Amino acid sequence: MRLEKRGERTVMAGLTHRGPLRVQRPFYPEGETSHIYLLHPPGGVVGGDGLSIDIECCQNAHGLFTTPGATKFYLSAGATADVTQMLHIGAGCALEWFPQESIFFTGAKVKAKTQIDLEDDAHFMGWEISCFGRPVNKERFLHGKVHSKFFVRRNGRPLLSDHLLVSDPKHLSAAAGLRDYPMQGLFVATGGTEELLEACRDVLAEAQTKLTNSLPAGLTLLDDLIVLRVLGISTEKMQSLMIPVWQLLRQKVLNKGAEIPRIWNT
Amino acid sequence: MSAAYFRLQQLISPSLPIGAFTYSQGMEWAVESGWIKDAESLYAWLDSVLSGTMVTMELPLLMRIADCIEYKDAQGCHDWSAYLLSCRETSELRAEEQQRGQAFSALLDKLPEAAVWPELSDPVWRGAMDISQLSGFALACHKWNISREDMLRGYLWSWLENMVIGAVKLIPLGQSDGQRVLFRFTDYLSTACEEAFDVEDDDIGASSPAQAIASSLHETQYCRLFRS
Prior knowledge:
The complex is a heterodimer. Chain A is an alpha/beta fold. Chain A has helices at about 170-175, 195-210, 235-255, and strands spanning about 1-5, 10-15, 20-25, 35-40, 45, 50-60, 60-65, 70-75, 80-90, 95-100, 100-105, 110-120, 125-130, 145-155, 155-165, 185-190, 215-220, 225-230.
């Protein structure tokens, strides 16, 4: 998929697709920014499936991507499912990437890679929420292998190479690992400074006070990346910490309103 | 007995002046928050970092970097070092990696035999050593004929010993409790090195999210003894 700014709006200038993965027509709830839903109608991914997304932003394009529901990875009979998401963000462009969570059922075998390539002053904001088992139904992730990578580079230089590896139930209870929380959230945004990091910490602290039990969550600044990591047991509670940080940075860095995709409210 | 044995002992000694004792890699916050409170929870923490970061990231990268040194591939050494830095999850862990690397190469500059190594004055090699402690360590091991196995075991032991020394101070634990924790790891350490041999290029990376969170929160911890 190729996004470009034409006139006042970011438009989908090129799109080819194969298989069941679909892209909905962009819509514009806030002016020029193109909001786009990625749809995977089968609803789930099984061993041996391959999902590959390649998005290019150029000529000052600004796109916001989300999915209407969680992506489910089911028990595999043997083969590994492969997910590759390549996001190329050209100079002057911004891409926001807020898919709903990935749910890994017991027995899932998954290799997932999200590679964000930034050029010059390009901006990115996004998250990855991973859920092992189905905590809502008290189903634990008993076996399987998930290796999820989230890489950010600017002009080819690696800024962040984040890995989440669960290949043994002991990784879920590991003291320096997931500590028996079935979910991890990773939020990353460009344009960070020490001053913005401070502001994000304040927003996070305030969001924590609204939870009955605060969650393990930490912010750090890596080059110009603000990185927030959260452990949790429900998407809503983790998002209640990540969304205020995103909203703050969206306003300060992208100069955009604090728009939350409407589809999340349905 | 060859000089290599004694050189390795010198390189991995806690008395090597590279400030290893000033870093806790998030343990200081983990102790403050109650995640680590006794010998048992310390063991669990270190066991987790060992399998989630050491085996899957540092040891495999140490081997890749040692290969680059053997084959005189300066750019490869630099690229793996830059990759290591990008895998470090927080600004404190990145600062630690760079400070240790720079302290290590500055120390080599002062050792009469090492000071003449051409790599120390080459910008690409030196650049790699300045962003990661692995490069300087692997270079010294190569020059002093320390075997791959001994290099890995030595690096791992040195990390573990420094963490336990730090934890004994932080929790606090008795000296003999600290020794018991070290003792419990003995059997696993050789296995850990063997597991590290099997990690493929594409799979090299750290997965210790709670350590990353602890290290992030250490950045604003009110009262701190350690730099990470």
